[in-house]
Structures are given as C-alpha cells and as structure tokens.
Amino acid sequence: MGAKADKVMDVCLRAGEIMLTYGAETYRVEETIERMARAAGFTNVHCFSTTTGIFLSFEEEKGNGDLMQMVRVDDRMQDLNKVTEVNQVSREFTAGDITVQEAERRLEEIYAAKIQYPMWLIHLGAGVAGGGFSYLFGGGLFDFIPAFLAAMVASFTLVTIEGYLRVRFASEIAAAFAGSSTAIALVVLGLGTNMDQIIIGSLMPLVPGVPLTNAVRDLLSGDLLAGMSRGVEALLTSLSIASGVALAISIFL
Amino acid sequence: MQLLTEIILTFAAIIGFGIIFSVPRRALLLGGMIGAWTWTALQGSLYLGITNVVATVIASFTAAVIAHFLARRVQLPVTTLSIPGILPLVPGSLAYFTMLSFVESDYINGLEYGVETMLQAGAIAAGLVLALSVFSFRKGIGNRYETGD
C-alpha cells in the first residue's frame, strides 16, 4: 500500500464521516467520496454507506493494490453548516485546486470546529420557532410568549440531558416532558389561553426535520437500507416526543 | 392582515429552525423566505377551496422547486434550503391530537387523526419527489450533484 493511497483513503473517509454525522443524505456521502477518490487518480472506486457506517474500496492501479477500509459512525447530529463546508472542500479537491495535505488539514479543522451559532442563540431560535408555530397552528397572538418560554425550556433540557446521557431518545422524552409541563404550568398560572396550541408550539423545535427529509431523499435515490433506517430514526424521535407529552398530560391534567 | 402576521411569524420561526439545524449563514434568510412562500402557497390553495392534502402537495412541490433552483445558484447542498421550505407543512397539530386522543382512550378519533397525519406527511413527501424528478430530468437520480458540472 502506497503512502499516497493511504492518505487519500483517510481523507475520503474523514470527509464522509463528517458529512454522515452531521446530517447529509447518503447519496451525497457516497458521491462525494467516489469523486474525491477518482480525482486522486484511483480506479475501480466503490463506496457503500448506510446511516451508521461507510465502506470504501479502490485500486491503486488497474488490477493490483486493492484497498478497502470502513468507518463506523456512532453519532448523528444536526449541523448543516459542516456538510456545506465539506462539500466545498471536496469540490475544490476534485477540481484540483487544493492538494491532499491541504484537504486533510481543512477537514480536520471542520471536524474540530464548534457549532457556528452560540448556544444561547440556538435556545432563542427554538423559542422563536415554538412561539411562531403556536400561532400558525391556531393559537392567539398572546400565546406566543408562553410557547416561546416553553420551547426554550424544551431546547435547554434536550441539550443539557444529551450532555449526560448516551441514549438519545431518553433525552427527547425528557425534553418533550419538560416543554409540555412548562406550557401547562404557564397556562394554569394564567399566561396564555390555548393550551393545546402552546404545547404543540413548544414541541416543534424537537421535530426531526433533517432525518425525515433525508429518509425520503435516500429512499428515492435507491439507498433503501439507509432510507429505511433514517425513516425509523425519525419515527422513533416522533414517538419519544409523543410519549413525553403523553406523560406530562396524564400527570398534570 | 392576518395572513401578513402569519407570514411574518413563519419567516421568524423558520429562521429559528435554521439556527437549530445550524444552516450556513447565507442560507438563513433564503430558507426563511422559502418557508414564508410555503405558508403563502398553502393558505392560498386552501382559500381557493383545494383540499388539505392537495394543498400540501402544491406547497411542498413549489417550495422544493425553489429550493433546488436556489441551491444551484448559490452553491449550497439542497437540504439546507428544502428543509426550511417544508417545515411549515409538518403536521404537528394533527400528530398532537392523534396522541391526545389515544391518551384519552378515544381510539376512533385517534385513528382518524392518525390517518390524516400520515396523509399529510405523505403529501409532503410527494411534493419533494415531484420536485426532485423535475430537477433530475435527463440526468438520472443517482448522478446528481447539485453544485457540480
């Protein structure tokens, strides 16, 4: 195995790992990796990716030096900015604008980078999203405030508990429970009138938008395995949210 | 007047969602605008007397078409724009009432709401599919790379 092939393999898999972790569609991961490997001059490139792992194989030259490696992707998060940046790196690498070393350096930077928005802004965004949707689902204009607060509580709970707990669905149940409990408490205290709409609004920030859209896209482009698993992930998240709310409602109402 | 308030709130809420999903800065406002358009298309179709499911297909299709078009123009992965585009259609309200009915052991109503939720989710997917097929015309679905070539 040549040193260059080894390097390219690492760079390709790192690019794929970042994309898959932070919410890219499977077809985009496979295509990006295959393009990068071909641009580096290798033949017989094949990449297979599911929601939780990537396999990549290519030949150093026609007929010999077969290489094959895989990575396991454990975490799945939402950071579409990182997907965009990796896309940019791969585009420049494919066009021959940057070398393998430079691509590796930039990918490591992206990998180590923190999320681009500060945490308070994310909670604020969740609050605005929750408040806005409570109105769109038929609440009054003054229901914006309780829904805003409840959505912020839900988002804060989700982030905090995810820091301690490895089971993702448990933190979603807890977040849904905390959000809807806050909503119920605020309505009981006299802030806001339409309890149903406020609860729905407070839960909107937890909606699995990225897995849902990616599931449809993956199924359509023929990645049946990845599409099904993403769909199941979205379904499980929805069920976790539902059970969190159901818990809050049956305890407090 | 009420529609205007709704559109402004959709715009704000979608930008909030964009921050949650951490879309790139230059996609934030674009996503908000696509989301606002989705809501306008949905309400407009409902106003014309089109049924809920078909209106959702129309809104999701137009939003996804705009997202694909803009994604090529500004060189972004299409998900960063299509996710904000379809978020206003998510049947959160229906899903909530499904759950509520089952909790109160009102199974018949729960099933009715559940079927409606599934139909609406299917309608969103249908719109996405239609837009995707328009934009992969003559290219083949597996070989698309929005930003390349």
TrEMBL record, chain A:
* Single Gene Ontology BP annotation: succinate transport
Locate the Threonine/serine exporter-like N-terminal domain: which residues?
10-251
- Its domain of life reads Bacteria
Q: Where does the chain cross the membrane? A: 120-138, 144-161, 173-192, 232-252
Q: What is this protein called?
A: Threonine/serine exporter family protein
Q: How does it sit in the membrane?
A: Multi-pass membrane protein
Cell compartment(s), UniProt: Cell membrane
By sequence similarity, the record places it as follows: Belongs to the ThrE exporter (TC 2.A.79) family.
Statement: the UniProt record of this protein carries the keyword Nucleus: no
Chief location: membrane
GO CC terms in record: plasma membrane
PANTHER family given in the database record: SUCCINATE TRANSPORTER SUBUNIT YJJP-RELATED (PTHR34390:SF2), UPF0442 PROTEIN YJJB-RELATED (PTHR34390)
Keyword terms, alphabetized: Cell membrane, Membrane, Transmembrane, Transmembrane helix
Recorded GO molecular functions are: transmembrane transporter activity
Automatic annotation (TrEMBL), chain B:
Q: What biological process terms from GO does the record include?
A: succinate transport
Give TM segment ranges: 7-24, 44-71, 78-97, 117-137
**Localization (cell):** Cell membrane
* Membrane topology annotation: Multi-pass membrane protein
Alphabetized, the UniProt keywords read: Cell inner membrane, Cell membrane, Membrane, Transmembrane, Transmembrane helix
Q: Where is the Threonine/Serine exporter ThrE domain?
A: 7-133
**InterPro entries with a match to the protein in the record:** ThrE_2, ThrE_Dicarb/AminoAcid_Exp
Q: Supply the Pfam families for this chain.
A: ThrE_2
UniProt KW Transmembrane keyword: yes
One Gene Ontology cellular component annotation?
Answer: plasma membrane
Q: Which family does it belong to?
A: Belongs to the ThrE exporter (TC 2.A.79) family.
**Which PANTHER family does the entry mention?**
SUCCINATE TRANSPORTER SUBUNIT YJJB-RELATED, UPF0442 PROTEIN YJJB-RELATED
Identification of the protein by name: Threonine/serine exporter
What is the native source organism of this protein?
Answer: Alkalicoccus luteus
